[in-house]
């Protein structure tokens, strides 16, 4: 049988890794796919010919990516350029030309996935995006197929390696935020704009995709609440540890009574949870299904070969699906397109969670009682309190409180009142807290 012909857009880190994997494992991949797979046409604006030669086999290389998506020889386009544009235009044109698409572009899928999947369905082609979430971990396959029997209750994941690397180094080595970020950039893990990593935008792209797959709702990146890690202070990492918790930057999506929660934020989680011990650039995703219970998926969330592992697995899936009836393929968002629901995504004010609060309190009688009184009036129950001795010459002390679960709107009111109270100084630090129990 004729080899399947691939058009590859982008020869950067993941593009290079994909060439390497497709060349190195060509025989085994062909035995799995049922056909040989060849990269016949690639696109790259600037590249070092020696580096490209060392990667593996590529047919010709053009500098205009549109010539690849318009190449009549190409069966499957792999989009590894990243970003919103021209990636969107390239993918839509490839679909219009009747080509299947593989992409690692989480930003593209999170923002334009609904449009792209509708176009693909109309044309009878597939768009595969395993590498868009958690790099080499086959989490999309797991949620979309492996867990298809379950009513998924929630997903919580460490889905940005750069952010996890920064938090791990801060906790273990007391290193400064900026220094660790620079190292992640040098290692090639960080996004082109590293604020996407530290402010949680990259994780929110990925969580948007997971939420849709889990609950059968259209992609809604604009409704995903996002809070980064740049304001986490070493003292909060230390207080959390004293109380038996670790701070992780989690993406959480949950089925609540009134709708779906979609949120990315620093989170205190009990240190004994397996996911609390996922450190460095590694990713992990914890999925709670009603039948299976909790399942945890761990692995490299970024990097050339791990991400290429997911890209090439998608290519193999597509090669196997080339001859199948388009109406009987695995749906892009796990649920049949006409079965997606309009269940609302909840605003963060309606989300219920527990909290860690750090209040800078004046060291005088009645302050603790007054703060406890405010919390009680807002219906917030305190689970633990920790007060440090004032440092020599200091008139204020850090007061740490852990609360039971409460709606965020009530916590916002309480924090506003505590900040206005003359027994507290400055802003209250609030970090959401999750037990991640079944
Ligand atoms: N910047 C991302 C990360 C790369 O650090 O996880 C993989 O999406």
Structural account:
This protein is α/β, with parallel strands linked by helices. The chain has three domains: 4-136 and 304-339, 3-Layer(aba) Sandwich (Rossmann fold), CATH 3.40.50.720; 139-300, Dihydrodipicolinate Reductase, domain 2 (2-Layer Sandwich), CATH 3.30.360; 352-433, ACT domain (Alpha-Beta Plaits, 2-Layer Sandwich). It has helices at residues 13-24, 26-33, 49-55, 65-69, 87-96, 106-123, 139-146, 161-173, 177-186, 195-198, 201-215, 234-242, 304-321, 367-377, 408-420; strands at residues 4-9, 37-43, 60-62, 76-79, 100-103, 127-128, 152-158, 225-226, 245-255, 260-270, 282-289, 293-300, 352-362, 382-387, 396-403, 406-407, 424-433. Strands 7, 8, 9, 10, 11, 12, 13, 14, 15, 16 and 17 form an eleven-stranded mixed β-sheet that branches. Strands 3-2-1-4-5-6 form a six-stranded parallel β-sheet, sandwiched between helices. β9 and β10 (260-270) form a beta hairpin. α2 packs parallel to α13 (304-321), α5 runs parallel beside α6 and α8 (161-173) crosses α9. The protein is elongated, with a radius of gyration of 24 Å. The mean pLDDT is 95. The protein binds L-homoserine. L-homoserine binds next to α8. The active site is at residue 206. This is Homoserine dehydrogenase. Pathway: Amino-acid biosynthesis; L-threonine biosynthesis; L-threonine from L-aspartate: step 3/5; Amino-acid biosynthesis; L-methionine biosynthesis via de novo pathway; L-homoserine from L-aspartate: step 3/3.
């Amino acid at each position: 049988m004729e080899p399947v012909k691939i058009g590859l857009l982008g020869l950067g880190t993941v593009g290079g890794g994909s060439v390497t994997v497709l060349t190195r494992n060509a025989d085994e991949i062909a035995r799995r796919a049922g056909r040989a797979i060849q990269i016949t046409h690639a696109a790259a604006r600037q590249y070092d010919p020696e580096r490209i030669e060392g990667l593996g086999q590529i047919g010709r290389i053009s500098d205009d990516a549109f010539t690849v998506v318009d190449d009549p020889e190409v069966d499957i386009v792999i989009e590894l350029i990243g970003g919103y544009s021209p990636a969107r235009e390239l993918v839509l044109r490839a679909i219009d030309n009747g080509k299947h698409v593989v992409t690692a572009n989480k930003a593209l899928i999170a923002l334009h996935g609904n449009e792209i999947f509708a176009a693909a369905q109309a044309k009878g082609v597939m768009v595969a995006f395993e590498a868009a979430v958690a790099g080499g971990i086959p989490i999309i396959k797991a949620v979309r197929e492996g867990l298809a029997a379950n009513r998924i209750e929630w997903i919580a994941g460490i889905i940005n390696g750069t952010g996890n690397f920064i938090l791990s180094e801060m906790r273990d080595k007391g290193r400064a935020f900026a220094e660790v970020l620079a190292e992640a950039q040098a290692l090639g893990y960080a996004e082109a704009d590293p604020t996407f990593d530290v402010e949680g935008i990259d994780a929110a792209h990925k969580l948007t995709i997971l939420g849709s797959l889990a609950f059968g709702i259209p992609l809604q990146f604009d409704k995903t609440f996002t809070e980064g890690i740049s304001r986490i202070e070493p003292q909060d990492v230390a207080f959390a540890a004293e109380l038996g918790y670790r701070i992780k930057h989690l993406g959480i999506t949950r089925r609540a009574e009134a709708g779906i929660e979609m949120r990315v934020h620093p989170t205190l989680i009990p240190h004994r949870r397996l996911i609390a011990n996922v450190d460095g650039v590694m990713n992990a995703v914890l999925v709670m299904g009603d039948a299976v219970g909790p399942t945890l998926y761990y692995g490299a969330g970024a990097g050339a070969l791990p991400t290429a592992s997911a890209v090439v697995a998608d290519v193999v899936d597509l090669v196997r699906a080339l001859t199948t009836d388009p109406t009987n393929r695995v749906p892009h968002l796990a649920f049949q397109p006409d079965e997606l629901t309009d269940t609302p995504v909840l605003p963060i004010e309606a989300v219920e969670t527990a909290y860690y609060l750090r209040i800078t309190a004046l060291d005088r009688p009645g302050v603790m009682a007054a703060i406890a009184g405010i919390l009680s009036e807002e219906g917030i129950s305190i689970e633990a309190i920790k007060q440090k001795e004032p440092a020599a010459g200091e008139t204020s002390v850090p007061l740490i409180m852990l609360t039971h679960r409460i709606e965020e709107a009530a916590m916002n009111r309480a924090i506003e009142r505590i900040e206005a109270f003359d027994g507290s100084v400055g802003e209250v630090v609030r970090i959401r807290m999750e037990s991640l129990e079944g």
